[in-house]
Amino acid sequence: MNLLAVLKEIHQEVTPLLGQGNVAKYIPALAKTDPMQFGMAITLNDGQFYGVGSYEKTFSIQSIAKVFSYTLALRAYQNDLYKRVWREPSGTAFNSLIQLEKEAGIPRNPFINAGAIAVCDSLVTHYSPDKTALNEVITFIHECCGERTITFDQAVSESEMEHGFRNIALANLMKSFGNFENDVHSVIETYFQVCSIAMSAKQLSRSMLYLANNGTDPISRKNFISSPQAKRINSLMLTCGHYDASGDFAFRVGLPGKSGVGGGIVAVVPGKMSIAVYSPALNKYGNSLVGTKALELFTTKTGLSIF
Ligand code: DON
């Protein structure tokens, strides 16, 4: 199969859709992003790479970072992590407060904001006092990606910190239920810094290969997580990776995937490859509008879905 030709076709087909949707305005530093951008990248388990459009442009990975943090937390806490963060789809928006109150401070899954904040809290506990959770997540991304230049964007994390009222509320709610171990302010600061990590679609597709290969990076041969744990992360990406649009993403794309409000989406084709797409205008659920369409076209054209 000529994957570059497929990517070029997709690029052509989605170009008329650019401009639909809206960039994430609730994070002021992201509100000025040009909505017309599009990039798509594929890295195969054997290291072959294909890209079109702005695939080397770095952007704020936002909630995609939750995959890396969750991997580290699952490695550190194993099944004990499920006592703090459950594994069911929420059917609610990524920053919803209502369910958390009803369910006594236990977030439904690690990809909604409450769950990712609890994961971040668990990493702060795990790495202190000698290391910081932020550095460990970044170092982990360096290992997954095979590049040491990736870092976070301070302007974006500070902008989120100034407007992070909902996330601070979620953390305080968990604290009130006893599901929070550290200082709310410092965990939220770490959470925002992790969300503001900047990567390109090319780097993202490379860095998720461990999930396409049972927890071991197929290129460096480094083992990051066990095969059953990789299965679970992929399952959670399939069922929860797009919040209240997870069912729609599974229906249309048929792959484990994780979105971020920066406009990125990563998807995993187990045993074969990882795909990342960047297009910053979002649909009403906070997922890249054109990115979702591009991935839908990809699995339709290639038959490379898990179903
Ligand atoms: O906490 C937030 O709201 C953002 N830092 C991340 C949200 C996000 O990416 C949701 N994804 N689609």
Automatic annotation (TrEMBL):
Subunit structure: Homotetramer.
Keyword tags: Acetylation, Hydrolase
Enzyme class: hydrolase
The keyword Acetylation is assigned to this record: yes
UniProt name for this protein: Glutaminase
HAMAP family: Glutaminase (MF_00313)
SUPFAM superfamilies associated with the record: beta-lactamase/transpeptidase-like (SSF56601)
Family indicated by similarity: Belongs to the glutaminase family.
